[in-house]
Amino acid sequence: MLAAIRELAPEITARAAEFEAARRIPPDLVERLRSIGLFRMFVAQSQGGLEFDFPAGLEVMKALTRLDGSVGWTSIVAGVGGLFAAASRPELYQRIYRDGPDVAICGSSQPAGTAERVADGYRVKGRWPFASSCMHADWMGGFCIVTENGKPVPGPQGKPLVRAVMLPVRDWDIEDTWHAAGLKGTGSHHITLRERVVPEAYVFDIDVAPRLSGPLYQAVRQWLPLLHGVFSVGMAAGAVDELLALAHTGRQQLYATVPMRESEIFQYELGRITADLRAAQAFHEVQVAGHWRRALAGTLKDEDLMVEGSRSSAWLATTCAGIADACFALAGSSVVYDSSPLQRRLRDVRVGAQHAHAQQRLYVDVGKLALRRSA
Fold this sequence. Notes:
This protein has 375 residues and is α+β, with helices and mostly antiparallel strands. The protein has helices at 2-14, 16-22, 27-35, 54-67, 69-86, 90-96, 224-247, 264-297, 303-331, 341-352, 363-374, and strands spanning 105-118, 121-131, 139-148, 151-152, 162-168, 173-175, 189-198, 203-204.
């Protein structure tokens, strides 16, 4: 897969403006990505999938994110879709992959719908934001608050009970709402489900005991912050790549006495930036390795581990956005144009950092965990 991505790299970078203008990944490129196995990475071998070890799947996502933010984000959604499907009921999992493992799944994790219990399933309706990759999805999902007689059903800790619903794309409506500052090519529109009765088999709890064997399928939530972390790290590495490429053109900035690459000021700042990048990469690698060890040991489903993952995703989002900022500032005025990859990189990484898995408020739980452990 990595070899195939290297072959695709020139085309991906050359078509970035096309992704932004269309606000989606073009269908022909989606099919190329499908053909190299992007949508089957985390699908069980029993369904013809690759069932990659989690760290191996991240390497594929990192490679694509380093090339382009929207393509990288799309690859992460592809992986998440396989993991969420694996948490569904066995009959639904079989239904999703009955025609093969190369199924594109997307959705929204916000509980923006309701699922009213009825005799033959659930009456579901809702409108969900940020459904990245919906323009090429085969199946789509959304989270719903479960209700009875119009009132939320209490769940754990007294919070409303939440369940996921997943249905073929033909059952959903897509609203053209994705006019965004960055990650323009992800097609992250709103999706709507008109009120309909959904059989119980299509509604499931992602936090139940694992339905599939193997370390990859022990839990879903614990993987999510690490998936966001790979986006941050890949974007930062791509920003450094863009800066280096600009320096190697021999560019000499206005009033400078030497080309950028010969300037000691440039060299100093570049050295500091690459140190920050390596620190971010190392932190993410350590966090991924730790989670994977826990998965192999059968102890992945742990709330403290979720907090540790959140700590890494929040820190990486801030640090990697800072790396992109520094690259942009160091590059000079030529990067302010829409045609500049660095300008696009900065917008993409900043939009990614707005995600719920990257918010600074996550540090509250991290601080509580540190206090509890120290006591």
